[in-house]
Amino acid sequence: MKKTNYRDVSVIDVDERLKIFIACDSSGGIGLKEMDEFKVPPEVTGYHTVNVITCELEALGVVPKVIVNNLCAEMKDTGERVIKGIKKYLSENYENEEIEITGSTEENFKTYQTSLGMVAIGYKKDKDFEFFNTKENNSLLVVGKPKVGEEVLINQEENINASTIRTLRQIKGVVDIVPVGSKGIRYEAENIGKNKALKIIYNQELKINLEKSAGPSTCCIATVDEDVVNIDDIKEKIGKPVEMIGVFN
Fold it and tell me: Which of 98, 125, 152 is the last residue of a domain?
């Protein structure tokens, strides 16, 4: 078997056509335990953590089949509430999919801070699958807004989710999609350019902060062929904030 990495996703070639995709994320200090830095219900922690890993897979056109939730806390009641948040997210974004949830909890020792590691696993049968397809003169868009901490819970309709990315992928003329995390928009955009030996010419007056963390993937970047699709059409179909920030050269 051959293994390659696409950013934060591990891809295993089982055979000539079948590929297994594995995305992971972690969360620490976000919950209602004594030493948590950001106090929110555990349901919120589960909801937004699973957003990160499902968006990573959806950006590659992969539907998750298994969610692994390894929680460094007790099942009652922290674990149950985290799982409740995961299930809420999956019901909103994967209503017609059967997705298995498994994992483990800490039952031997008392914990004072909420921490977890979460993994999404999916597969795809595609002999000719390619990671980066961006070309010269493709435009670079940001969908959603980068948010972290309390900002994530304000105007939540602006945040992207797995359904947002799935809709983006279905729009003809959208080339590559990359969810943005803690490293910010510029890092992810430059990574696309580096892989295709392209430079980005950024617009001079940007409304968005390219360096800011996007926390639990509250936004994504997308490369677009404007000869095929109009930016205004994307805005209408997505229903999220969209800003054109540059072009690949």
Answer: 125
